[in-house]
Task: structure prediction
Amino acid sequence: MPNEETMTIHETAPDGTETTIEITSTKTDDAVDGDDKALVEEAYEAIFDDNIDDDDGTDDDVNDDGPPATNADDGGDDGLQASDGTDVNDEEDDIDDDDPASQLTPTDEEIGTDSAQFTIGEDMFPDANAPSAVDTSGDDAEGTGSAVATDDDTASAVGTTDSGDAEAADQQAHADAAKDAQDAADEFVAQGDYAAAAEARETAENESYAAGDDSMLGASDSGDLENAAYQQQNADYYRDQQAQDIAAGDYEAAKEDAQNVGAATGDADYLAGGADHTGQADKDVANLDWAVWDEKNADSAAQNADYYAAQGDFDHAETAAQQADDYQSTADGYADHADPTSAGYDYDASSAVDSGGSYDAGYDATAVDSGFDAGADASAAVSYDPGTDDV
Result:
């Protein structure tokens, strides 16, 4: 609870008119306790000047044992009175230089009202013991220790503002760089160059982290794109193996290779969030499926030819042998359409991807190399329908 003290001052004018002034001082709970001056003393110092002279040039007196008293014009029976009504003798030893309460009372000009109330630690009269909000360590020329902001304070404030502006500009620069890198990653993904997209996306992630903003980043992160690029490498491996198995005449193995190409390519597209590039693998699987079918028919026809020949039925044996050749030729034709190294490759343009790109600041997303391009259109498919097995 606040502590409250009241000080009453009586003043008698030369014409006998008496004036009573009551000052109530309240000290808040957060004001410093202990050895602080009395509330009335702090109040008195806060409002009134010290050592005020009367009209006759003499110093006023107060009673050491009570609140400040007023003085009469001539220091006689119209003289100083304390709050209890007793006269205060004009004796020099009644004045205590170390006691603000024994100092002189205010003049009429200093007192504008008959009473005043204030709170120490709040409003107009802050607690002298409370920490100051400004630097008062440097005294002025008269040693009064005036509390004013220095040039260093101003410079510090300006420096803080400049530093904040520089930091904001730096963050914006990182955000812009992150957006540029993400845009590059998106374009690389659209081209199917997932390795380059991973490189650009990693740059975007680093820049966005520095900017403290990841709102510009896409769904697939650099890890996803790196895995997508790895799956593209797997697809390339199986496609090379597919060509080797076709060259060896193992169309069944080549068909499995094409299926693996499609699976790896699909995984890559999914991880990167790219377009579907599995169309080529699907065509290869279809062509090789026909190749396997016709090759089986060729094997069956060859077996029939051997049987007829063993029976001495050379006419049927010759017919069966011719059928076997026809089936094998058709199978080879389908396999040729599925051979990435062949001029007759049944090329699917929607599955073409770029590779070999890279990203750095000021990037230009330009196609570098195509993953595969037969460069020639496939010839018309063999019209023979392997659905009929002539034996």
In short: The radius of gyration is 52 Å.
